Amino acid sequence: MSIDIEQYRCRVGQFNANWKCKAHKSITIHSRRKMPISLLQSNRSCFVMVCVLFLVPALLALSGDVHPNPGPNTNDSQSSVSTPHSESSITSSDSHKSQNKHLTMVHCNVQSLCINDENKNKMDLVKHEFMDCDIICITESHLPPNIDMDKIKIRGFREPFINSRNAHGGGILVYVANTIHADRLDQYELNVECIWLKIRHGNTSFLLGTFYRQPSRNVDYWDEIDTSISMATTSGTPNIVITGDLNDDQLKPGGKLIMVNS
């Protein structure tokens, strides 16, 4: 099911909480009487709340030296202030991927990239959320088979590996940084909705399998997934990483476990 960007952000918790200060219905102060302590404390709380919600953000905005997306990177050469859409932030991210000795991977079920809908298109969200990652695995892309590749390219990454079903469901995309060597191993994909890649980075190599299982699939589909993974274990590459969305709660009784031959 396709959802727009606002619904998606609500689901992943990226909307800030809205704080509301309830005003007192009526306050009457009689002459020659001291204001009740509880009333003073209440007004003081409201004043502090107003300062936190409005004054502090305003001062931070006026300071001009607050990074819009701070992170753990302490390298001064990459700490220049830039907006998420600026060219400098993209260049810095490309440099980060080329210098990092460790691989970073992420999987995200986007519930439709909505490429052909300007109001719901999530490509900008994917670019700016995951730009610092080396490998981006996306499920439920909902891309048609004849998609224009220019619409889904990300700077700093090679052309994505695609497994498209149709514009109404499923679909997998895997982005790999230009600095990393990747080969597709479609002989392991069989009739399963997945993408198998062999990743080589420095002296390390491993297999990466990205899977998507539609909730309405029958029980036999688990056997096909099991077969696909078992075949990958015979490749001679000892390290295998499996990611994706299998739409199965393993904590529920009767959950299907994938048994891979050792």
Count of discrete alpha- or pi-helical segments spanning 4 or more residues: 5
Radius of gyration from CA coordinates: 25 Å
Structural class: alpha/beta
Q: Write out the CATH superfamily name of the domain at 92-245.
A: Endonuclease/exonuclease/phosphatase
Strand residue percentage:
15-25%
Can you walk through the features of this model?
It is globular, with a radius of gyration of 25 Å. The protein has five helices and eight strands. Residues 15-35 and 76-93 have low confidence and may be disordered. With 262 residues, the protein is an alpha/beta fold.
Give a quick rundown of the structure.
The protein has 262 residues and is an alpha/beta fold. 26% of the residues lie in helices and 17% in strands. The protein has a domain at 92-245: Endonuclease/exonuclease/phosphatase (Deoxyribonuclease I, Chain A), CATH 3.60.10.
Summarize the SSE layout with pairings:
Elements: H1 5-12, H2 37-63, H3 87-99, E1 105-109, H4 123-130, E2 135-139, E3 161-163, E4 172-176, E5 181-184, E6 194-201, E7 204-212, H5 220-232, E8 240-245
